[in-house]
Design goal:
four-stranded antiparallel beta sheet, single chain, alpha+beta, elongated, 2 domains
């Protein structure tokens, strides 16, 4: 083979390789036009970008990237709501799985919470009994003064009012503690459900 022939073949090989590489680098855009027809071209109109499109390899027709359609404000709001709901679920799942290693542990935690609330209820009830007893004593003292024509002192009146305020506060606390027990049962029931379920749904919106 002559030197000139060898050089000619080498140049042809380089050019052939360059053409192949260049073709492999070409990207096409696939989108739906205004008529609803599928179009493949070297460029995509700016007006069609929001509708979503595919980027494909010109040489092989392989899908390189799928750019989804832009969401409407309503769709975006739905997606964000779903994202928040899923993140809240993931946070709850992480918390429950960190706190408990078994369903029995959740049951024991509920029992401890209820026992703690019951203890506070008993203390409040004991204080309430004491306040009511003191109130009756003060009221008898006031009644006795009224029967004998005596005037009620400001101290006595203030003490009667103070005991009534304390009674109202303790009654409100006891009622709240009973609501706390209901809330604790609901909360631990939810934790048990999360623990047994063990995963969060994908929450995919159908747009």
């Amino acid at each position: 083979m002559g030197k000139s022939t060898f050089m000619f073949l080498a140049i042809c090989l380089v050019l052939s390789t360059a053409v192949k590489v260049g073709a492999a680098d070409v990207r096409l855009y696939r989108y739906v036009n205004a008529d609803g027809s599928l179009v493949i071209s070297h460029a995509i109109p700016a007006s069609k970008v929001a509708g979503g499109y595919d980027i494909i390899d010109a040489a092989s027709g392989r899908l390189l990237e799928r750019v989804p359609a832009q969401l409407t404000p309503e769709q975006l709001a739905i997606k964000q709501a779903h994202d928040r709901e899923r993140q809240a679920c993931l946070d709850d799942l992480d918390r429950v799985q960190t706190l408990y290693s078994s369903e029995k542990e959740i049951g024991r935690a509920l029992e401890e919470a209820l026992e703690s609330i019951d203890s506070r209820i008993k203390n409040a009830e004991a204080n309430l009994t004491q306040m009511r007893s003191e109130q009756r004593k003060l009221e008898r003292e006031a009644a006795q003064l009224e029967r004998t024509g005596g005037a009620l002192s400001d101290i006595l009146v203030n003490n009667i009012e103070r005991t009534q305020i304390q009674i109202d506060t303790l009654e409100g606390e006891i009622a709240q503690r009973h609501r706390d027990k209901v809330g604790a049962r609901e909360r631990f029931a939810k934790d048990r459900e999360i623990f047994l379920n063990g995963h969060c749904p994908e929450m995919v919106a159908n747009f």
